[in-house]
Specification:
209 residues; alpha+beta; four-stranded antiparallel beta sheet; two-stranded antiparallel ribbon; 5 helices; 6 strands; 14% strand; globular
Length: 209
């Protein structure tokens, strides 16, 4: 399989899977609903307006800026991916960049379109393609659902700042797109020499006669 075909296949599968899972959760779960899979793995439906791990800034203006920034970043990633397809790099590099691209696009779809593709009831599941919606284009919320509370307990008192307090590891809720970005970054770190090759320094010295 060519590197171009590998990139396209990775992107298509990743984005479709991301959206299928998000749409299923949004149309089958009430906001805040949780399903226990294992003690350390739960499906917990939440939405966030901003960045990874639920961070937000700047209200509506900040959200619009974030969406536009993501679009610009996606264009840059396409350029980066195209350049690496032309180079003789390991397939893991192509997959890594493709996953980062897919993750960014997956969350962009939520941010741009979910405000108008769904209605937004408070105490029931959302409907896809409703007759009316109170949302707006570019102001959709990102759907998150994967929750891994691997350990919960009171931290030892000797730990600075948070000692003696109840703590959950891992407490953040994320989605497939977030996972793609994380996996992609890990792959690029492992294959960093190929992903970020150093330019060979040209010998500018002169030889004596």
């Amino acid at each position: 399989m060519s590197k171009k075909a590998l990139a396209i296949l990775t992107i298509l599968i990743s984005i479709v899977l991301d959206q299928v899972i998000k749409i299923y959760v949004k149309t089958h779960f009430v906001l805040g609903e949780e399903v226990l899979i294992f003690d350390w793995f739960r499906i917990h439906f939440v939405e966030n307006n901003g960045m990874a791990m639920g961070f937000e800034f700047g209200g509506k203006a900040g959200k619009l800026f974030l969406t536009i920034f993501r679009i610009v970043a996606v264009v840059a990633i396409i350029y980066w991916l195209s350049g690496n397809i032309k180079r003789k790099v390991h397939n893991a590099v192509i997959i890594g960049i493709s996953l980062i691209f897919s993750g960014a696009v997956g969350n962009i779809i939520d941010s741009i379109f979910y405000g108008v593709l769904f209605n937004h009831p408070k105490h029931s599941v959302a409907a896809l393609f409703p007759e009316t919606t109170n949302g707006a284009l570019f102001y959709g919320k990102v759907v998150d659902m994967f929750y891994f509370p691997i350990w919960e307990g009171v931290l030892p008192d000797w730990i600075p700042f948070i000692g003696g307090e109840m703590y959950t590891f891992f407490q953040y809720i994320f989605n497939p797109a977030d996972s793609y970005i994380t996996i992609g970054v890990v792959l690029l770190f492992i294959f960093s020499k190929q992903a970020f090759p150093k330019e060979e320094k040209k010998d500018t010295g002169t030889t004596g006669a």
